[in-house]
Each structure stands twice: as C-alpha cells, then as structure tokens.
Design brief:
Helix content: 40-55%
Strand content: 5-15%
Bound molecules: calcium ion
Radius of gyration: 24 Å
Structural class: alpha+beta
Order of helices and strands: HHHHHHHHEHHEHHEEHEEEHHHHH
Strand order of the largest sheet: 4-6-7-3-5
C-alpha cells in the first residue's frame, strides 16, 4: 500500500513536469463557461453553443494520446513499407477504378490528376475506411484546448468547429474525427475546413465525412490553391554519380533539370533527365547509402499539406504505383533502426551546444535538424547527407 501511495505521488510529480502550471488551475466547467461566452461573442448562435457544448467532458484518452512519445523514430524503409505496401497499392487501384468518373470530374475542375487524390485519400484514412472518425471532435478539441500544452491552437480549432456546426454542415453527433480534431475522408482540421472545404454536389452542405463528392473536391481545392500543377509530376527517383557532392542535398538548393543533368544526375533506370525547363531539389531521406530523389513544385505543395519529406515521398510513390509506374529501386539500409526519441533529443542538444541551429529540442528530427546535421558533417569532414543515424550520434558524442 505504501508503495502504491508513493507511486501515485511520483506519477503526480511526473505529470506536473509535462503539464504547464495553469492547466489544472482552471476547472474544466469554469473554462467551458468562458469558452461559451467567447463563442457567443464570435457570432455562433446560442442554439449551436447549447447543442454542442452542453454536457461536454474532457476525454482522458485524448490527453494520453497527446502525451504519447514514440519509442523510436521510423526509418524511411519502415515508413514506406508501412504506408505504401502491396495491399495499399492494390486497394488504391481498386478505388481509383471504382471512383474514376467522379475523380476525373473533380480532377478536371481543380487541376489534379486522379491518382494523387487517391494517394492522399489512402494515406489519410485508408481510402475512407476511417473517414467517420472515432472521437467526438468538439469534446476532443475542448480537452486539448483546456489542457494547456497548445491551448491557443486548439481553442482556435474548437471555435472553428463550432462555426461549422452553426453553419449546419453536420450535426454535433456526426462531427467525429481523430483525437486531435482531424475530420473526414482527408482529415481536415476545422480551420482547414473553413478555408478550403467546398460543397461539390450543391446540396448546401459541405459533408467531408460521408460524401465523397464534397470530400474529393475539398482536397482538390486545397491542393490547387496551394500551387498544384496537373501537367507536372511530384518528382522522380534518380541515380547520383560516384563522388557526388552531398552539399547539394536539401530542399534549400534549387537547380534546373539541365543543371542537375550536368552534375551527372540521371533517371533511376539510367537515361537522361527530361529536357524540360523545371526547377528541382534533391532529397536523400536515408542518407548517402539510400535512394535519391529530385523533387518538383508539386512536392512542395504536398509539404504544405504535411511538412514531412517521408510523407511527400509516400504520396508520390503511391500515386505512381496506382498508375503502373515502378516501385522505388531501394528504400535504403536494411538492418539499421531509427534513433530513439531520447537519442533524437540528445542529438539536437549536442548540435545546439556546438552552435548548430536545430530549431529546438523536441526529439523529432525534422528538416531543420537535418540542416544542422549537414552543417556539422561539413565542418567535421564527413559526407554531408544530413542523415540522423545512430553512427552520427556516436560521432557527435566526440565533439567537433
Ligand atoms: Ca454537399
């Protein structure tokens, strides 16, 4: 019993460390009363506020999911074999065929090739299988807005969700989604809905949960307004020449296809790059030992949707596979594991201490951390591929 009590207090102390001081100071009921007032001053009707917020309680599971930390970060290989496996490609081809008329109509109106819409659909909700969602959106967002870790962001999402209800697009009972408030076939958060969702079938309601016409058009509208071009592809896998200068890797370096060709970059199957006037960057998601890709403007648009380079390459690969293009020739090193969350943090701490800007220490090695790694590699005389490997961490522990 004594041990149990101690453990209980230890857990409370641990919780206080991750939870900002103000989070538990305002009881949920008081917080909700204040939120109601704000919603009314923002012009949301009393009827909607009552229907949506009466009886709303925080969801413990949502807090749990928000605090969850992955044990290991995923390697490119692990990510790709999970997101774009043979089952998903087969299912995607079926969905592309089944919905072809609608996809073509929406694709023509907004300027998006159908296979890309299906690729986003596949990665976001397994082609709509998860579109209905599990968590009631208002309660999930209220939980996160009250919790205090990112309360301003989630409060804005919650007010946007109330606005959607007030406009009558969906009932509070049907407004469900992910634990973090992403909703419908393409997992739009409420502010994305407000900015891009559209009523394709003209029935006066935007239903991204149960109506594929509205869902496809909303996703297409997002993409086209974020710069998508339907006469271009996302990019392509390439082969680098022996002795290639890895300082040229990264989203920040842009060259024309002609310039890349002069540097010896070739199509993965061996031919010359297309002779068109296009600007491209080179990415190497698993470092010098893995595959390399030239990415075009549409890839940057995919990154407006989701900032992850892995995600962008998964969209590109899935879209390609749906129309019969080959799989990537390699996914990079096989046996290696990704960094653990703690190792990712240590890497960022060590880089920061050495004067390289990782954009914060959060254990998630994103684009900014990769740039810092590349900078370190340059100064340390290593191949500057920006790849966050276990070997690189060991090297970092020895200093510059
Ligand atoms: Ca509609």
């Amino acid at each position: 019993m004594r041990i149990l009590v101690l453990t209980f207090f230890a857990a409370l102390i641990a919780l206080r460390v991750v939870s900002p001081a103000h989070a538990e100071e305002v009881p949920f009921a008081d917080w909700l009363r204040d939120l109601r007032k704000e919603a009314l001053t923002k012009g949301i009707s009393e009827r909607t506020v009552n229907a949506a917020l009466t009886g709303v309680e925080p969801i413990a599971r949502v807090i749990e999911l928000d605090r969850r930390q992955p044990e290991f970060t995923w390697t490119f290989r692990k990510y790709m074999t999970t997101m774009v496996n043979a089952d998903r490609v087969a299912k995607g081809r079926e969905k592309l065929a089944q919905n072809h008329a609608l996809l073509a109509e929406v694709g023509k109106k907004y300027g998006i090739q159908p296979q890309y819409l299906v690729a986003f659909w596949g990665l976001e909700t397994d082609f709509g299988r998860l579109a209905e969602g599990y968590f009631p959106t208002v309660a999930a967002l209220a939980t996160l807005a009250h919790d205090g870790r990112r309360s301003a962001f989630f409060r804005e999402q919650l007010l946007a969700a109330l606005k959607i209800l007030d406009q009558g697009h969906i009932t509070p009972e049907r407004m469900k989604g992910s634990w973090a408030g992403a909703m419908g076939h393409f997992q739009f958060i409420p502010t994305t809905f407000a900015a891009y969702a559209t009523d394709h079938d003209g029935d006066g309601k935007i239903d991204i949960w149960g109506n594929k016409k509205d869902a496809y058009a909303s996703a297409a509208n997002f993409l086209t307004r974020s710069g998508w071009k339907d006469d271009e592809i996302w990019g392509r896998e390439v082969i680098l020449p022996r002795g290639f200068d890895f300082n040229l890797v990264g989203m920040g370096v842009k060259k024309t296809l002609g310039e890349w060709a002069k540097l010896g970059v070739r199509r993965v199957e061996g031919g010359n790059l297309p002779d068109v006037d296009m600007s491209a960057s080179l990415v190497a998601p698993s470092g010098a030992q893995g595959p390399a890709f030239l990415i075009y403007g549409n890839f940057r648009t995919i990154m407006v949707w989701n900032r992850s380079i892995f995600y962008g390459l998964a969209i590109g690969q899935l879209a390609d596979r749906l129309v019969g293009k080959p799989a990537f020739s390699t996914l990079g090193p096989d046996a290696e594991r990704g960094l653990s969350f703690e190792e990712g943090k240590e890497m960022q701490e060590r880089l920061t201490a050495l004067g390289f800007d990782t954009g914060g220490v959060d254990g998630v090695v994103g684009a900014k951390s990769r740039d810092a790694i590349q900078e370190f590699q340059r100064k340390a005389g290593l191949t500057p591929d920006g790849y966050p490997s276990v070997e690189l961490l060991e090297r970092l522990r020895k200093g510059l």
